[in-house]
Amino acid sequence: MAPDESEKARRKAYRLLALRSHSEGELEAKLKASGFSEAAMAGALARCRGLGYLDDGKYARQRARDLAVNRLYGDRRISADLRGKGISEALLREAIAAAREELGAGEAIGRLLAKQGAAPDEDLDRRRKERLIRGLMARGFSRGLIFSVFKDKNTETGEDGFHGDDGE
């Protein structure tokens, strides 16, 4: 590894981190895609960690909070997003728990329904209710939580015609 390559890898890492926060896995993948050697990447990552620019725990907490509070995503979607960024299971569970302390999943569902002009206790027609439920599932909320918010056991058993994620 040439000293020049090591310096280029560090500069590339700094530029990427200046644009937005990255997980260690993301940054490593971007450096690898740029053609840097393993030694140059390891040096750049170690330097960024040492300077406090790269912290997977902090990144996971910030990302989970953004997805839970600002975008109103469910735990499943947040978990998949963080897993895709290379965050470990332990860190992502901790990050989701911290985000849920600020805004519970049930409250997030309530906010999403309010944005759509609906309320869980409102008497909705079957088609609208099914559409709302599918939308909530797509955002990463579990069926059990959705049905508990709607407090409608007929929906949970499928007696009203809703049988799965795809509405069939």
Number of domains: 3
Order of helices and strands: HHHHHHHHHH
- Termini distance? 58 Å
Q: Structural class of the helix and strand makeup?
A: mainly alpha
Radius of gyration: 21 Å
How many distinct helices? 10
Record the SSE blueprint.
Layout: H1 3-19, H2 24-33, H3 38-50, H4 56-70, H5 75-84, H6 89-102, H7 105-115, H8 126-138, H9 143-150, H10 153-157
Helix pairs in contact: 1-3, 2-3, 4-5, 4-6, 5-6
Explain how this protein is built:
Helix content is 69%, strand content 0%. The protein has 168 residues and is an all-alpha fold. It has 3 domains: 3-50; 56-102; 105-157, no CATH class. Helix 1 packs across helix 3 (38-50), helix 4 (56-70) packs antiparallel against helix 5 and helix 4 packs across helix 6 (89-102).
Summarize this structure briefly.
This protein has 168 residues and is mainly α. The chain is 69% helix and 0% strand.
List keywords for this structure.
168 residues, mainly alpha, 10 helices
